[in-house]
What does this fold into?
Amino acid sequence: MKRIVPALLVLMCAASAYSQSGEHIIPAGSLISCTVSEPKLSSKTTAIGDPVLCQIGHSERYGRSVLPYNSYLVGRFEDYKDPGHFVGKGWMELRFDRMVIEPDTTIPIDAKVVAVPGYNVDRDGRIVGKGHETRDIVTWSIPVLWPIDLIMLPMRGPRPTLKEETRLTLKVMDDLAVPTTEAPQQEPSGLLRRQPTSYTPPPPPEPAPSPVAMSYIPAPPVYYYPAPARTVWMYRNGYAYRVTIP
It folds into this structure.
């Protein structure tokens, strides 16, 4: 009895510490879903070691949000195997090791892919491609299709390919401490209300320069004076005539 009481006190202190720190625990074995953002993810378009982003979907437990909004998983294209020409299926492996919570929080995580729509996933988390283990068994049994089968014989089987918006289901392998965030308020119509953001008003416009007063000086009047009349004397037939030219 003396040992039980201190153990209970330790558990209560730990629970209060987690509540004060604003974190909650996602236990190992929990399933989370995320959506691939790349348009086409396969061994043909991605090399080993390339980063992979997966947007985390919304999930709730007991009416409360388990994973923060605006968060995503960061991983790597771990390994792959192309399908054989005659036998064998192709596979690829994705490994996620970080959770990024906007704007600048990064949490280490160990998560393994366990389910992908349209594909099988083995116990190692590898996404196995479609097709038969022995290629074209049915078509080779039809003699009429043999010419087509001979042409397609050197080609490999289909590779596993994840299209954009493919939803992955992952299993958390270790306990994960996630900071608690408030979910955005929801309107009665079902839409989410965006949280108010800090708004900095633009600086007031500079006052317009005062107009420059321009003085108007009228042009001086122009006076026209008639040219003086000219007098011309003309002599004709012994007589003198005076002619005035205006």
The chain has a mean pLDDT of 75. The radius of gyration is 45 Å. Residues 37 and 56 are 11 Å apart (CA to CA). Residues 4-21 form the longest helix (18 residues).
